[in-house]
Amino acid sequence: MSDQHGSASLPGGFRALGDLTVTRFGYGAMQLAGPGVMGPPADPGNALTVLRDVVDLGITHIDTAGAYGPRVTNRLIRAALYPYPESLHIVTKVGAERDRQGGWPPARDPGSLRRAVHENLEDLGLDVLDLVNLRLGDAAGPRPEPVAEAFETLAELQRQGLIRHLGLSNATPEQIVEAQAIAPVVAVQNLYNLAHRDDDRLIDELARQGIAYVPFFPLGGFSPIQSSALSAVAARLEASPLSVALAWLLRRSPNILLIPGTSSRAHLRENIAGAGLPLSADDLADLDKIGH
Ligand SMILES: NC(=O)c1ccc[n+]([C@@H]2O[C@H](COP(=O)([O-])OP(=O)(O)OC[C@H]3O[C@@H](n4cnc5c(N)ncnc54)[C@H](OP(=O)(O)O)[C@@H]3O)[C@@H](O)[C@H]2O)c1
Question: Is Zinc included in the keywords of this UniProt record (predicted)?
Fold first, then answer.
């Protein structure tokens, strides 16, 4: 199967992720675990069906993490999709664990990172992870902390052949530069959507360098984006606000890859259709005012 296998009809087409090729319309698997991203889902059969739909619809980029569940989402992905189509690329994250309260404490010492990479390999049933993001900061956002020791640990695992590409998540521009002195960074996954545009300059800089930018919470995460300007544009287009939010992200920059999350087969299809909405120059101008 060719690396570019996937539906030519997915909005956004294809994009390079390091030396891999993925559909710009990807899938975020976090919502498949139980409430609060802890434990198994109420309906595991539905989760497996959503994952099979993802692949059947031609999506070739799934975003996950060992911390989802923990270890629940990765095992669902394996149960639904193994053996994986050659075209499918599963991106995971390390650097945070889960505590009993459902918190996400950092786990970026070398031992924790090595353990997390091996657990991802085991749970996903892979010999090599296509892309591992080092997740920095905390739930409140990025923090200006050094990344060298943690990124060097992952670079060593990359040299050992366990990881193909490295990325960063929840990272500041300075941390990206610091990591790039250690090993190439092919993707950055940060919080960004129509209403949260702190990374505008960073996105343009990464586009200049050919690095993918993967916004998490593209729909607003646990509280969907709400804005009267967004609702007005959506009403004009007879579309949902969330559809417009996805279509806007695809138009925002060619290095943006979408990973909207859903546990619903219907929402998955709605989101694909929505991301393909044509937006006029007037629509874009109105939407551009929201995050500023
Ligand atoms: N790097 C990080 O630190 C980090 C942090 C958070 C997330 N992520 C990644 O980013 C991905 C995306 O983020 P996310 O899933 O948290 O947030 P999101 O994609 O912004 O939004 C997901 C939420 O929107 C709902 N939704 C999706 N489509 C919908 C539709 N068509 N109509 C109505 N509601 C809809 C989902 O509920 P339903 O299930 O009911 O559809 C879910 O509650 C995650 O899956 C994860 O892979 C990374």
Answer: no
CATH top-level class for 14-225+257-263?
Answer: alpha beta
Q: Is 68 a catalytic residue?
A: yes
Q: Is 73 in the pocket of ligand 1 (CB under 6 A)?
A: no
Residues 40, 256 contacting (CB under 8 angstroms): no
Q: Alpha-carbon torsion 215, 219, 225, 227, what sign?
A: positive
CB atoms within 10 A of CB 291: 15
- Cis preceding linkage at 260, omega within 30: no
Find out whether the beta carbon of 219 lies less than 6 Å from any atom of ligand 1: yes
Q: What whole-number distance in Å separates Cα of residue 196 and Cα of residue 225?
A: 9
Per-residue model confidence as pLDDT tens digits over 30-76 = 999 999 999 999 999 999 999 999 999 999 999 999 999 999 999 99
Task: Encode pLDDT of 224-242 as tens digits.
Answer: 999 999 999 999 999 999 9
- In this structure, which residue's CA is closest to atom 37 in ligand 1? 262
Find the 35 Cα to ligand 1 centroid distance in Å: 13
Q: Output phi, psi for 278, to 5 deg.
A: -75, 135
Q: Which residue puts its alpha carbon closest to atom 17 of ligand 1?
A: 221
